[in-house]
Design a protein that fits this description.
Number of helices: 2
Distance between the termini: 25 Å
Helix content: under 10%
Number of domains: 1
Order of helices and strands: EEEEEEHEEEEEEEEEHEEE
Shape: globular
Structural class: mainly beta
Strand content: 35-45%
Radius of gyration: 18 Å
Length: about 240
């Protein structure tokens, strides 16, 4: 849909969703060093219902599954996006063809008190993307977003199992830039429209919930792999 999603009237935001049935979402895993990622296992801590070992690596689903579309597909606009709406109409494209990809992302040294902490049954984890987040159309990159840090929170309060844990993610504000080659590419008009609507203002990537699915994966040096869905996220211009 291209109508406002009704969530934040007046605030400029591009809403996304990532369902596993659509080849979307994120992947989380450890690595034993025999594949493309260096060996790493995330930190551990005691939650109310038992010990938790955090996944060290996170990326959008397409990072580990070749046929996956990406992480999230656009589902709605709120606030003024006149140039983007016009460009989509002119190119005969649907909003849902816009896809976000999350690059390989890690907590770096994964040091307690610096890269993560667990306090009052809430874990806070500071993650560092290894490349920019990308907004794509048909596999062609349009915009790049390079936040220094993503903050992941896992709220274990009153949780009886991991299914009850409330997980959210937010990026530091960052400015969008045209992806490499995009200004001269086939979708130059869309790139220009997005940048015009954003007007050099910083944007923030906000994930309101992350839900693990029953699916698991292994192979290529990746261990303890899980997929997760993202019911709702957004790229927003903060107040």
């Amino acid at each position: 849909m291209q109508a406002d999603d009704g969530r934040a009237e007046g605030r400029r935001a591009l809403a996304f969703s990532g369902a596993a049935r659509d080849g979307l979402g994120i992947a989380l895993w450890q690595a034993d060093g025999t594949g493309p990622e260096p060996a790493a296992t995330g930190h551990g801590f005691e939650a109310p219902f038992g010990r938790i070992t955090a996944h060290y690596y996170i990326a959008s689903r397409d990072h580990v599954e070749r046929d996956a579309r990406g992480g999230l597909a656009a589902v709605g606009l709120s606030g003024p996006w006149p140039e983007l709406r016009a460009a989509l109409r002119a190119e005969g494209r649907a909003l849902g063809e816009l896809v976000m990809r999350l690059p390989l992302t890690t907590p770096g040294a994964d040091r307690e008190g610096q890269d993560w902490c667990y306090r009052d049954d809430v874990e806070t984890r500071y993650l560092h993307p290894q490349a920019p987040l990308l907004l794509l159309l048909g596999g062609a990159p349009l915009l790049a977003f390079a936040p220094v840090r993503l903050t992941l929170t896992e709220d274990y309060r009153n949780a009886r199992s991991f299914a009850d844990v409330r997980i959210a993610l937010v990026s530091d504000p960052t400015r969008a830039a045209a992806a490499s080659g995009a200004p001269d590419g086939a979708h130059a008009r869309l790139v220009g429209a997005l940048l015009a609507d954003l007007g050099a203002r910083p944007v923030r990537f906000v994930v309101e919930a992350i839900h693990l699915t029953p699916e698991r994966f292994e192979g290529q040096g990746r261990t303890s792999g899980r997929y997760a869905e993202i019911p709702l996220a957004r790229l927003e211009v903060p107040d």
